[in-house]
Amino acid sequence: MATKSSLFLLAALVLGILADTSEGQELRCQCIHTHSDFISPKLIKNIQVVPEGPYCNRKEVIVRLKDETLICLDPDAEWVMNIIKKIADRYN
Asked: Membrane-crossing residues (predicted)?
């Protein structure tokens, strides 16, 4: 029969697992400044599109360059929209 302390520890463990946010998930906007200058796709290693949500009221586009630099792009810049569209078309 489980004691009260072991039940408490089990409950704390379960709550800790459920409350654990995944790596990279923040409860606020990630981008303070955005850049609209063109960046060659050859320099881009990874692109992440974060939609509007309860913790950030704007769409964010974050790229990781091959030198591991993170840059927030202006999601309304025409060249950024074109890259996102090409990626989306590739998967549709």
From this structure: none
Q: Max Cα separation, the chain? A: 65
pTM over 0.90: no
Stretch (H or E) spanning 87: helix 78-91
Burial of 61 (0-12, 13-18, 19+ CB in 10 A): buried
Check: CB of residue 30 under 8 Å from CB of residue 72: yes
CA 87 to mean position of chain CA atoms: 17
Select 24-91's CATH number: 3.30.360.10, 3.30.230.10, 2.40.50.40, 2.40.110.10. Answer: 2.40.50.40
Q: Report residue 33's pLDDT band, with 50, 70 and 90 as the boundaries.
A: very high
List alpha helices for the chain, DSSP H.
4-19, 78-91
